[in-house]
Amino acid sequence: MMGFFSTSKTIGILGGGQLGKMLLNTTRQWDINTHVLDPSPEAPARIACNLFVQGDLMDYQTVMEFGKNVDVLTIEIENVNSEALIDLEKQGVQVYPQGRVLKIIQNKYRQKEFYKKNRIPTSGFEFFESKEALKDAVARGFVSFPFVWKSESMGYDGYGVKMIRSNQDLETISEGGCLAEDLVTIHKEIGVIVCRRPSGETVSYPSVEMEFHPTANQVEYVLSPARISNQIEKKAQEIARQVSEAFQHVGLLAVELFVTKEGDVWVNEVAPRPHNSGHFSIEASYTSQFEQHIRALLDLPLGSTQNKVSGVMVNLVGSENHQGPVRYKNIEHIMAIEGVNPHIYGKKETRPFRKMGHITIVNESLEIARQIAEQVKETIEVISQ
Q1: CA 197, CA 318: separation in Å to the nearest integer?
Q2: Domain with CATH 3.30.470.20 in the chain
Q3: Intervals of CATH 3.40.50.20 along the chain
Q4: Which of these, 68, 180, 231, 316, has the minimum number of CB atoms within 10 Å of its CB?
């Protein structure tokens, strides 16, 4: 795969959001040709690729046409046409993650069944063909409150997931196939990012700890390394590697895990792409998750996953009650603080809870980084002009 540096060989990326944009930092550094497909003419990644194509990621023909013109194809979002990926592989395009892997992960039911089949610890669940079938099961007493509702497909970034505590909550869920998952008493939510190259070499980053927004079901802070015991870390690493081995994927696999009060570690779900929980790695690790993904796509030796320093990532999301052209209020104040690294994604319009950027705070001390992160969170505001 050495032929990708300063040649016409091309990596194609399905999706042109912030993850695609950050992948392109590495391809630009290494002078690798890239094409990006995204439905939005304003996609953040459009400015950093060699060719930007506007088109529907779920349309079979669009993805086929785009894929035929690249040598290696990858994704930065799961909601793409996986049948096209499978057919492109048959035509000789290298597709990572592979279409068969994506097809399982895109569907929450198939994903949970996969864990069950491969004896990977995960919470109990029931599948329902429709909202009505779930409501009927609740009415008959087969499913009892509280439980976690998950849409079978198209869930992303906290959307398509709801805590159901009453019949009133049940009315608010969307139509279509869904899962009712047992509610787990969670002590901590952690994540492990695993990376695997075609020749089989696999590396994983130390666990990170995630702190969530109380109402938006979005990650507010990611702490690296996670504040967990060596025993839990060992368990988390073993389970993440087990998941990676079972999928036999290529590229990144972000494994989201629950740590229970009893000290058990269970898989929540996975994403076969760069992930919000890995953004800290740009400043805090020897090899960023984005560079690692490109290394894996090209079957290059994988880089060190060790931290150079502790890191805390804060998501920059649109303030409530603000919609329209974006303004980053007080950004100059946070930039005066040592160890603060802002990343602005390039989305021109803000709306409540929309991910507009992130800020990574690095420090020798995780505790100090976490304190600064809170100060940053309280200072900067993502508002409309």
Answers
A1: 36
A2: 186-384
A3: 2-95
A4: 231
Q: Report the amino acid identity of residue 142.
A: F
Indicate the DSSP class of residue 288.
Answer: -
- Which fold is adopted by the domain 186-384? D-amino Acid Aminotransferase; Chain A, domain 1 (3.30.470)
* Backbone angles phi and psi of 178, in degrees to 5: -155, 170
Just give the CATH number of 124-182: 3.30.1490.20
- Distance, first Cα to last Cα, the chain: 47
DSSP letters spanning 346-372: --SEE-TT-EEEEEEEEES-HHHHHHH
Q: What secondary structure does DSSP assign to 185-253, as a single string? A: -EEEEEEEEEEE-TT--EEEPPPEEEEE-TTT-SEEEEEES-S--HHHHHHHHHHHHHHHHHHT--EEE
Which DSSP string corresponds to 105-167? HHBHHHHHHHHHHTT--B--EEEESSHHHHHHHHHTTSS-SSEEEEESB--BTTBTEEEE-SH
Q: Coil, helix or strand for 265?
A: strand
Residues with Cβ within 8 Å of residue 167, at least 6 apart in sequence: 138
Q: What is the pTM for the complete model shown? A: 0.96
- Give the Cα separation of 309 and 278 in Å (integer): 14
Cα distance between residue 126 and residue 88, in whole Å: 34
Residues in the chain predicted with pLDDT less than 70, given as ranges, are: 1-2, 155-158
**316-375: per-residue pLDDT in tens?**
999 999 999 999 999 999 999 999 999 999 999 999 999 999 999 999 999 999 999 999
